[in-house]
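Morning F.,

Quick status update on the modeling queue. The single chain you submitted on Monday has been processed. Sequence for confirmation:
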Amino acid sequence: MRLFIATPVTFPIYERVKRDLSRFIDGKWVEGWNLHLTHKFIGEDEPDKYKIKLKIENGKLKINGIGMFGDKILYLKADIDDSINRQINEKFGFKNEKPFIPHITLCRIKKLKNGYKEALKKWENINFELPFDVYLYKSTLTKKGPIYEKIHKF
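Structure tokens below.
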């Protein structure tokens, strides 16, 4: 089973941001119900062994702006450390292949149009807070996109 650990994200003005930016950014926009912050991608494994206790600080997930990874990914910036990722790495002996950059993917970009930089400036300082819940997810890949199912709450 394809697994990952994540915090679900409800972005109240997502449709407005998407409508505004999609005039300048062509790509595959994440469905609103699939928005999440991935703490750890596990990959193919059995879910029962990951139903463990994690030390999760109570509080809120803070979002502070919008950004891009090169010209490929549009995302929301999340203000959170990598403690959940580190706990899973330590418990199961995983190694990080790249640095943890907390983000919520909004769009996988295919093409940028003239004016996209100016359009992004409108949203670059967006700030809000969300509940900080953490789940083990099952991910099923389909031709229409991934289907995520929560299978355990930490």
